[in-house]
Amino acid sequence: MAIQEIYDEQGCSISELCRFAGISRSAYYKWLNRKPSENEKFNQKLCVLIRDAYEEKSGILGYRQMTIKLNRENEFQVNAKRILRLMRILHLKSVCRRRRRNYVKSTPEVTAENILNREFHAERFGENGLRM
């Protein structure tokens, strides 16, 4: 595509541009005149469906749920790896919810009562780590 753009804008010769890019001229023309395969056409159709489903669910669906949704709603079966690859190409990622903390904040008055009536005293340690 870069060769084609430079050729259109600046008018440099195709053979010089191909030599600079390190590809043969025949490979450039083969690429230029190629027709999309059935797989590429199907992938383009899938990309549209993936983007629509992604926007419909506000980006919540990851590739696994996206695969399930597309396979249920359409008459084809698609592998999850294909959906993952296409979602990466489209730069689509699922929105992950934040983890909730699993503890309850409490004040010291609400903690446990001193049922055993234990008395706790602070102990002093000297420089060598022994009790004083």
Task: Give an overview in words.
The mean pLDDT is 83. This protein is 49% helix and 0% strand. The protein has six helices and no strands. It has two domains: 1-34, no CATH class; 36-95. With 132 residues, it is an all-alpha fold.
Topology:
Blueprint (H helix, E strand, L loop, with lengths): L1 H9 L3 H8 L3 H8 L5 H19 L6 H11 L6 H10 L43
Helix pairs in contact: 1-2, 5-6
Major sheet summary line: none
Helical proportion?
A: 40-55%
Overall tally of structural domains: 2
| Average pLDDT taken over every residue | 83
Pfam families: HTH_21 (PF13276)
Organism: Sporofaciens musculi
Protein name: IS3 family transposase
Descriptive key words:
132 residues, mainly alpha, 2 domains, 6 helices, HTH-like_dom, IS3 family transposase
Task: Give a quick rundown of the structure.
By secondary structure, the chain is mainly α. The chain is built from six helices and no strands.
